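Re: the 315-residue chain
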Amino acid sequence: MTRTRIPRSKAALAAAAVLAAALTGLAAPASPARAATATSPHRVLFDNSKAETAGNADWIISTSQPDPLKQNANPTTEKSWTGAISSWGVALQKTGAYSLKTLPAGSTISYGTGAALDLANFDTFVIPEPNIRFSPAEKSAIMKFVQNGGGLFLVSDHTGSDRNNDGWDSPAIINDLLISNGVDNNDPFGFSVDLKNIVTDNPRAISDATDPVLHGSFGTVTGSILRNGTTFTLKPADNPAVKGLVYTTGSSGNSGAFFVTSIFGSGRIAVWGDSSAIDDGTGESGKRLYNGWTDPAGTNAALALNATAWLARAS
């Protein structure tokens, strides 16, 4: 599909925003996000409305939805909650600084409707390998949420990973969000998903001691794992805030990025190229899962958790 070139003036405005943030040492203030307190922790919504459990996928923090605490109010290990990304949820829950919910299957992503699971009630929205295309209204809701200060965490997988056989896989769905959302169709985040299926690699982190995702409260990130996944092409001319943090072997610059962050409006974005890295190997019976969360070839737990903290403005 031909992409319309973004006007130079937009890139200049984005560059000015990044410069202003750098001068103050802070990102632009977020509208929905706010500092956590004992009574108002950082609010994270995990998506399960886009077939995140189709096939062998099991990308949920708990089968108890929307509230994982109804399965176990005091989780201690990944097995306290049922789901292949339960380790992610349990690690956040144990800090006491996060409030977690899941948008259940059959739900609609919304922003500003007043519904309990509306994005306006959350600081961060995690979409782990979507397998159903977002509707026009949902794409607009996601973009406005980020534009107004929300954090968006996207996880892609390889091209051809259409787990529910509806003709759409996560690379195509994410790219569709970026070029046909009704809010900004001109590469708003400064990256696109490559239509690749890379069988195996151990991508490495860049050297940047000041980056809060690579060096956060959950540990230091040295790299990740890629087991049938993809990469991203960066386009800093479209959005100068885009930044590759982890790259496949031999890659750098604008090609071969495996973990990327960016800024859009007042909000923040992170995107990862493979769901294997978030899989903790536990989940519902019958699923063929792989423990990438603690794979010694990467530091995937630190990467996921530090990025969540950055998106939620907890770091």
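Residues 1-31 have pLDDT under 50 and may be disordered.
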